[in-house]
Amino acid sequence: MERGGEDGGAGYDARPFVPAEADLGELREAAAGCHGCPLYREATQTVFGAGNPSARVVLVGEQPGDVEDRRGLPFVGPAGRVLTRALEEAGIDPDDSYITNAVKHFKFVQQGRGKRRIHKAPSLREMAACRPWLAEELRLIAPEVVVALGATAGKSLLGPDFRVTRERGTPLPLAPLDGAREPTDVVCVATIHPSAVLRADDRDAVYAGLVSDLRVVAGALRAP
């Protein structure tokens, strides 16, 4: 079987690397060897999701950043600290959530004498190639609400026409990412990526908007 991405050809696809009938731990181990698109060549390692395997809320970001790439865990840099604080203020226990990214490898360009690694947004092809991993994470965890953190996550979950400025803070139906026809009762709420808070001139206002959107997530959870 030809495995997309290994030969640098047109076939970007992680599906040949995704094991059937795997649990979350086995899925994480398999993802460490994924060559489904060329991003694995420059990244330090695959950064798989982490958190509560029975989480009611799954948060999906864009891709790992420089700190996450080096440590092998999602959202452990400055944006992760912003997100943790915002979740707590919104009434969502971070320890009862699961967090991952639409793309599991760090995409970057190197700049300057020290060759500082600068984030570069993944392409639609790279997002599509990595979607089988995200689809399996969501299938195994079966959350009530999925949070799209930023435009890339929103497009991966809701389609290429998604716009975070237009659809943020609104519960939307989430179709299965694996192409299954059966509808689900999972909803998706989009908001900004927490890194947008760090880049903003008016951090307080942007952060308040993030917390407001996450309160919609808290309200969308079914009563236990």
TrEMBL record:
Keyword set, alphabetical order: 4Fe-4S, DNA damage, DNA repair, Hydrolase, Iron, Iron-sulfur, Metal-binding, Nucleotidyltransferase, Transferase
Uracil-DNA glycosylase-like domain span: 48-215
Listed GO biological process terms: DNA repair
Top-rank lineage group of the source organism: Bacteria
Alphabetical list of SUPFAM superfamilies matching this protein: Uracil-DNA glycosylase-like
CDD domains attached to this UniProt entry: UDG-F4_TTUDGA_SPO1dp_like
InterPro entries referenced in this protein's UniProt entry, alphabetically: UDG_Type-4/5, Ura-DNA_glyco_family4, Uracil-DNA_glycosylase-like, Uracil-DNA_glycosylase-like_sf
GO molecular function: 4 iron, 4 sulfur cluster binding; deaminated base DNA N-glycosylase activity; metal ion binding; nucleotidyltransferase activity
Official protein name in the record: Type-4 uracil-DNA glycosylase
